[in-house]
Amino acid sequence: MAPYQSRKPVWHDPRAVVLLMAASLTTMANATISPALPGLERLFADDPNAAMLVRLLVPAPSIAVAILAPFAGIVADRYGRRRMLLTGVGLFVLAGCAGLLLPDLPAIFVSRLILGDAVALIMTAQTALVGDYFTGAGRNALTGFRYRPAISADSRSSRSPDGLP
Question: How much is the pLDDT for 26?
Fold first, then answer.
């Protein structure tokens, strides 16, 4: 598809909506498990490493991202950004739901590392696709909007000059 060059707000482009939704997945990887940590520690209290493993469940995806992300760009260039994004989302769903079925903390920890691999694929592909699909003000607005919730305490309190909500 051609890069976005319209007078309509960039968020009217379905590709922008999909890419923003993909970006939201990456922020959920660490945050969603936090409320479950005390319960996990109680559930696996008989495991002598429970206290350490439960505490490592939060940073595990970030560790995997730090290791895999530098190589994800090479994968994106070789196999395609869209394919890598879809693979990352599929892997995110599988690894994110794996905790429902896994029997012990070491297995859950491995699933969290795999979740980090999915995040690395999603982040890299999503950023590259923004560059591929959008130019100029549309790209700037989309890139700024993508990171605004992480920067602003209340992202709803300010509006983008480029028409983003």
Answer: 84
